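Summary: Need help interpreting a holo structure output

Steps to reproduce:
1. Submit the protein chain below together with the SMILES for zinc ion.
2. Request a joint structure prediction with the ligand placed.
3. Inspect the structure token block that comes back.

Expected: a single structure record containing both the chain and the bound molecule.
Actual: see attached output.

Input attached:
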Amino acid sequence: MKKITPRKIKKTGTTWDLTKFYNGDDDPGIEENRKAVERKSYAFINKWKDRKDYLKEPAVLLKALDEYEAWKRDYGTDGDAGYYFWLRTQIDRNDPELKAKFNKIEEFKRRVENDIQFFYLRIAKIPKACQPDFLKYKGLGKYRHFLERIFAEAAYMLSEKEEKVLNLKSATSYENWVRMTSDFLAKEEARVLLEDGSRGTKTLPEIASLTSSNNKKVRDIAAKAFNAIMEKHAEVAEVELNSILGNKKVDDELRGVSRPDLLRHISDDIDSEVVDALIKSVSGRFDIPTRYYALKAKLLGVKRLRYHERNVEIWDIAGKYTYEKAGRLIHKVFQGLDSTFSGILTGYSKNSQFDVYPRKGKGSGAFCVYHLISQPTYILLNHTDKLRDVLTLAHELGHGINNELIRARQNALNFGTPTSTAEVASTFMEDFVLQEILKGASDEQKLAIMVMKLNDDISTIFRQVACYTFEQELHSEFRQKGYLSKKEIGKIFQKHMASYMGGSVEQSKGSENWWVYWSHIRYFFYVYSYASGLLISKSLQYSVKKDPGVIHNVKEFLSAGLSDSPKNIFMKLGIDITDITFWDKGLDEVETLLEETTVLARKLGKI
Ligand SMILES: [Zn+2]
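--- attached output ---
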């Protein structure tokens, strides 16, 4: 097997340069690093595991946390060797030797993880009455929110023994159920009409994607096949869903949780009042998606769209964007916003932190990855010269910029982003780059791009909020009735889908079972974070467009990492995200895009 050695990687410039770690997969430095991680980890573990003083005296806890932070900064549970092999497996997925090396380090990592977790588990057990002494202690200021996060989660934890029972039972009472439905669906195939006019057997995800084809015959046949598969599994999914709703109810009662979505909010470090304001604000503006679908039906020349037609791409988007061209365009936009942003792009490029093109053995999609605060960030792309690829590059760079700003300002315990705001920087950069692209486009091209953008924004904001309210009703109905039939689940599902789609999208026969396929609802209430990320981003875009100086606030927010809750970070910048008018600003941006799209469609005689 031909191996891509890091030395060769460096030459090309569009693949990751991993030589700053090691000279190859057999570099003796790898084993040396593993040993160093072991030494440092067990030095910490052995020093603190039998002590109790750090749980009583703030000054001692400060000392322990400083040491913990230093360990997490340079070593963590797997050090450079773990990061290196993880990165290597992403660009060379089929090499069994590499996989074996990665697994070995993973095994080592789990051992360290298990042995060191006593530290924060015991901090979590500091009695409630004593917690303020630690939170108020001046020296612990830099770790205040780290402690607050641990204490918040601990408030709903049961005794060690009870937690153990819940943990041991969770595979049979929750995970296996969810896996069963998804495994059944993964095995499904059907013969459908393909884009090229032939017929072929396709898997469920492939069929799902064909339901959005711009060839009507293709999408209608795919939808029929999709509906048949959902119908076939609805009965089993009914029992599965009722079981996991029941399991969640029991857990919530044991923990004394007041509302089904509370633990999600706590683990995401977001206040319930912020999520409530978001849901209320977005639900109050469902006229936006309703008007969009009416426009879309007109553009397609039909009275009503069928349920599966709401995401149909009406036109192909033309234009070739080489990686170099995309880079230049993005650099220009970033430079216009703030030179720190363009500087980060230049730095990544110079240090070969991008892996740009698709190739055999490399994973699909795109991501931006970071690990320890002392290690560089890397971006993986699969650039194929399409407009989408430019936006993807801007998106991942947004994550990268977010990382670098946090790295510059925060300690290792605050290095990261809460789920609720993880997508702010990425969508912020993506939208500004899209506006630059629109500037140079013809009217026809512009319309195609704007419709594509509305498709995405509406799915991310309104559909996810409708899903959230669907989940809320599902849990509350279940808790009242004790069991929900597939018919009842389907009815609740269609009610919430219709609430944002409006009268121009039909809740077609068969679509009442599409919840069978919706895996998000099995993981409970996290879909709000798609909407919160994009809307915070849009609200910030609106403010920056009005006053470019506001970019300073954006940078402050992006530098904060996990140092405080999103609510408090914004509060310090004079922005109240518990106020529903904050969310309205972002929603206004979507409405403006809808209005501009309607005017352009009229101008071009499309409606
Ligand atoms: Zn992202």
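--- end attachment ---

Reviewer comment: The pocket of zinc ion is lined by residues 395, 399, 423, 426 (CB under 6 Å). Strands lie at 189-193, 199-203, 354-355, 367-369, 378-380.
Status: needs-info
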